Structures are given as structure tokens and as C-alpha cells.
Amino acid sequence: MSKTKKGWWAHIRPSVLEKAGRPVVEHLPPRFEVPQLPAGVVPQGVSSAIAQDSSLGYMGDCVANANNYGIYPRFRGYAYLAQLSQISEFRSPSETIATEMTREWIKLVSTGDDDHSEQINALAAEMDRLKLRDVFKQAIEHDGFFGRGMIYIDVDQRGIDSTPLVLDPRTIKKGSLVGFKAIEPIWTTPSQYNSIDPTARDFYRPTGWYVMGREVHASRLMMMVARPLPDMLKAAYNFSGISMSQLIEPYVDSWLQTRKSVSDVIKAFSFNGLKTDMQTQLAGSVGGDDGGGADDLFNRVDLYNRTRDNRGLMLLDKESEEFFQFNTPLSTLDALQAQSQEQMATPCHIPLVKLLGITPSGLNASSEGEIKVFYDFVRAQQESMLTDALVLALKVMQLSLFGQIYDGISFEYQSLDQETPEQAATTQKTKVETGAALIDAGVISAEEERARIASDPDSGYNGLDADEVPSVKADNTESDPA
Predict the structure, then answer these.
(1) Which of 35, 36, 148, 313 is the Cys-Cys partner for 185 at CB 3.0 to 4.6 Å?
(2) Can you tell me the distance from the alpha carbon of 382 to that of 389, in angstroms, rounded to the nearest whole number?
(3) How far apart are CA 92 and CA 85, in angstroms?
(4) Beta strands in 218-351 (DSSP E)
(5) Region of 204 on the Ramachandran plot (φ > 0 left; ψ -120 to 50 alpha; else beta)
(6) In angstroms, how far is the first alpha carbon of the chain from the final one?
């Protein structure tokens, strides 16, 4: 009776797989948990509000419910998010959004009949002194990296920080404003919030915070959360929103894997193989002193890989071996890599030319439309994230500067879409022609048009005295009889 010959794969022992370096991958289910904070954030001997919420049992324990309902993904943790901020693909979106939201900044304006130009100039100088724009930019970056931006209002009242900030000259005295400070969320956690009554205004909205062990009332902290989360997830995220870094992580991971794969393909686009009697080759010992078998096979493979180049020479046993080679086509790798890179712009709403510096290609290709949409998105973000905080900051600065709040002082967001010199010249020409037509029609006077030109910072004549209107000389020049 003949003995059937088994395939060579039936003789591969675990030691051979170990020598080949087969990776072992373990997949652990994601679990929500109370955020891990540095020691000292919550005062010693005091239970945090999140821990108290979890001890309530029923609906209060949202962290346990998130696990029970199988919600995914979970909060990645401040340490991990801080690590991601070192990688350009994660850092660029947050920095780009923060830069664009504060690039042209705001313009202080007077909305009433009274002239507040003197107060506006003083307020603008105070904003520069306190570096308010830089503080807001840093807070927006914190929101992108960690899910929450927070600015502390320092009015030299640290002894009563746990009490509400009252906007009154009797509580915020002249010269009492020390400044504004952006605080990373890792140093903070809620000290109290309502998790019982969903009809209340403060339901899952902290009214107090621990800032490195010191309790601070929420009115003394200006909060910025661009991507808020449902109530069930707020406790697990330390009452932050989801960060841009965590939101873009799957896209960046895909891009990094694609980039590495393309690099690996380019590095070894040619696949080589050797046909031989594997059963005979693997029959010997593995790792023994006598060698042979799998050791000889792997040593031969290593030798070939070390010497494989255009100047190398491979020797084959003519009777039992056959060498073959497959070459991978590289013609579409650039398109696959570019597509994976471009997908990173999806969650952050940033045009490729802004995010990656990639200009559109093709006939009549232009990114003007995408940039216009992006500027509209930035304006919406400014309105939702910055307006309330800026209104509060300007009121505090006015109390510290003037001892009162002027209702006629407001602000406008500057346009991000700046005109080219040619466009600006065309705009001014249109204004001049419109003004001349209105004067000829008797709608306005020359004095009123001169006042407009004097007050227009882009007119080129904004230093004119509006009250000194030059006299117009009649043209009595006679023609030359010759």
C-alpha cells in the first residue's frame, strides 16, 4: 500500500512560525471610564462631581450606561490626545482653524448716536496689552486638541473665585483686571452640576469647576466647545466635546497606513520567489546545533535578501529549483495615496490648499469656491464659539478701564476674504462715482461725501478734515484766437 505524500505546510511547526516572525494581535473591547486627571486637580479628601454622579446608580451613571449600550468610540484620554498634538497631520487642522478664526480678528464699533471713539481707542489698546487675540487663539487650539477651550478671567479676586462674577463697578473696580489665561482641560474638572432635573437650565452644565484644586465659579471661566456631545457622554469626556484630533484619527490612520504601504511597494515593487521541495527543506531541525532543514532555508532567504540588487547574482539548483519574479505596477499609486491624503480634509471642513497646500489641477481648476465656503464655515464658528466670550471680555475690560459699561460699544468680525489691490481700486472708483452721482442728484452734499471719504480707512484720504471743503473755481479760460 502506497503512502500518500502530504503537503509541505502540514510539517510547519510553531517554532518555524516564530522564526518567521508572525505577529500576534489582540483586540480589546473599548470601555468608557471616568477621565484620568493629574493628582491635585480635585482637592484631597473631596469627591469629584463626576464620581458623585456615578454613585447615584440609575440614570446618573452615564459612564456605565455608555458601556452597557455599546457606544463607540470612547474618550481617548488627555495623555493620548497630547501625544497626537505632536504629529503634523493631527496638529494642522486645529492650528488652521484657530489661525483663521483670529487672523483678521474683530473691529470695535460704535452703534449709538454718541461718539465713543476715545473709549474705543483705549479699549483696543487694552486688548493689545492683554494679548486677547493670542489668548483666544490658544483656547481654540485647546478645543481642537482636547475638545474644550477655557479662559480664566483674572480680576484679582482669587480669594472669592468660588462666587459668581458680578459685572458691576462695585465688584470689578478700575484697574482690577489682571488679564486672561487659557487653561488646558486636563487641569480642570466640574465641582458641581445638576444631573437630576433635565428641565433645569443647569442640567449637565457645570456651575463650578476645580482648577488644580481651587474651586472657580463657572461665570469666571469663558468656555469654548466647538463639537459638544450628548449628555450621556459628557461625564466620560470630562464635560468637553469631542476633539478634532479624535474626530480625524481614522482618516489620519488610513493616510499613514497608505503612505507606508506605498513606500513599501516602491521599496520592493518586485516580488521574487523560489520554487523548491519545501517538504524536504523543512524536514530538518530548527535552531539546533547541527543546522540543516528550516535553518538552511531561512539562512538562504536572508542571504538573498541582503544581496538582492541589480548587481547581485542568485545561484539555483538546476535539477530541483526554479526562480520567478512578479513586478507590481506603480502607475496608480500616486492617485491612491493622494485620495487617502485628501480624505483628511473631510471632518475638518478645510480646503486642501489651506490644509495641505495642494492646489487644484486640471483645466480652469480653481479653489476660490471652496475657500469661500470655508470662510463661511469659519464665520459660523466665530459666531457660535467666540461671541459670548468676547462680549463678556469687553464688558470686564470696560469696567476695569472706565468704571462703567458703554452699551453703544460693540464689535464686528473682520472679513477673511481680502481684496487684491486691483479689486480694492475698483471698489474705491465705484464709491467715488456713486458719491458724485448722488451729489449731482442733490441727494447728499459735498460736505457729506467728504466726511464719508475722511472716515473710510481704505479711501486714501482718511486724514482729511471733513469740515474744510475746498472751493470749486470756475473755468473761465478763453480759447486761443490763433
Answers:
(1) 148
(2) 10
(3) 9
(4) 221-224, 270-275, 322-327
(5) left
(6) 136
Cell of 130: 492683554
Distance between CA atoms of residues 405 and 211, nearest Å: 29
The Cα 374–Cα 7 span in angstroms is 61
Transcribe 392-460 into DSSP letters: HHHHHHHHHHHSS--TTEEEEEPPSSPPPHHHHHHHHHHHHHHHHHHHHTTSS-HHHHHHHHHH-TTSS
pLDDT in tens, the chain (482 residues): 444 555 545 555 666 656 666 554 444 455 667 778 888 898 888 877 776 665 544 444 666 666 666 566 788 889 999 999 999 999 999 999 999 999 999 999 988 778 888 999 999 999 999 999 999 999 999 999 999 999 999 998 888 999 999 999 999 999 999 999 999 999 999 999 988 888 999 899 999 999 999 999 999 999 999 999 998 888 889 999 999 999 999 999 988 888 888 877 777 666 677 777 666 666 655 555 555 566 777 777 777 777 666 666 666 666 667 766 666 676 777 778 888 888 888 899 998 888 887 775 544 545 777 888 999 999 999 999 999 999 999 999 999 999 999 999 999 999 988 777 777 788 888 888 898 888 888 888 887 888 888 777 777 776 676 667 676 555 555 555 54
Alpha-carbon torsion 346, 347, 349, 350, what sign? negative
Give yes or no for a cis peptide into 73 (omega within 30° of 0): yes
